[in-house]
Structures are given as C-alpha cells and as structure tokens.
Amino acid sequence: MNINWIYVLFAGILEIVWVSGLKYSNHTLEWVLTGVAIVISFIVLVKATKHLPVGTVYAVFTGIGTAGTVLVEMVVFGEPFKLSKVLLIGTLICGVIGLKMLTSDEEGTKVEGGKA
C-alpha cells in the first residue's frame, strides 16, 4: 500500500475522532483536542492529495469517516442498532472500495517540467 493511502486512512480515523468530539466534548481540554484532531486530519489529507487524485481521496476519507462514525456511535456510545444503517454503510464501503480499485496511484502524480 502506498504511504499516501496510509495518510488517507489515518486522516479518516482522525475524522471519526473529531466528529465524535464535536458531539461529546464538554470541557475546554476536550474541545482543544477535538480542534487538534481536525487540524491534523486535514494536514495529513492535504499531504495525500499532493500525490493522489483529489476526488478519490476525498471519497475514501469521507467514507471512512461516515462509516466509522456510525459504527462507533452504535458500539461505543449506545446508538440503537438498525439493520438499514448497517446495510447502507456496507453499500457506502463497497462504493469507496470500488472507487479506490479503479483509481491508480499514478493518476494524481503531478507532471513537473515534462517529467512524471
């Protein structure tokens, strides 16, 4: 796996953290940590988009964040389990995986000075 896709995965995991932080932060330190997670998440995401296709990266990032947040809400925070949610998350994951499989890592490489 390309290091840039690892950056996208890390940014997606941080998105799960900061989205949950937006809902559950009650104290100044929790808000500060949520803000730090947001900043780091986007710094890492921007770093990945310098070498990968932006559209695919954003779709994967938001897919990880959406699926992860819904699952964490159900498992950790006691949100009610709904089969329809799980099926829709599965559909989302299939779409993100399909998009990733159809996109080569070289598509986002910038051409500078006539060289790839």
Characterise the protein shown here.
With 116 residues, this protein is mostly helical. The protein has one domain (3-103). The protein is 74% helix and 0% strand. The protein is built from 4 helices and no strands. It has helices at residues 3-24, 28-49, 54-75, 83-102. α1 runs antiparallel to α2 (28-49), α1 packs across α3 (54-75) and α3 packs antiparallel against α4. It starts with a helix and ends in a 14-residue tail after the last helix. The model is unreliable at 110-116 (pLDDT under 50).
Largest sheet: none
Q: Mean of residue pLDDT?
A: 85
| Overall outline | flat
Q: Count of DSSP helices?
A: 4
Q: In angstroms, what separates the terminal alpha carbons?
A: 20 Å
Structural class designation:
mainly alpha
Q: Which range best describes the helical content: under 10%, 10-25%, 25-40%, 40-55%, 55-70% or over 70%?
A: over 70%
Using the CA coordinates, give the radius of gyration: 16 Å
The count of strands amounts to 0
Number of structural domains: 1
Q: In terms of per-residue confidence, which ranges show pLDDT below 50 for 5 or more consecutive residues?
A: 110-116
**Beta-strand content estimate:** under 5%
Q: What is the chain-wise order of helices and strands?
A: HHHH
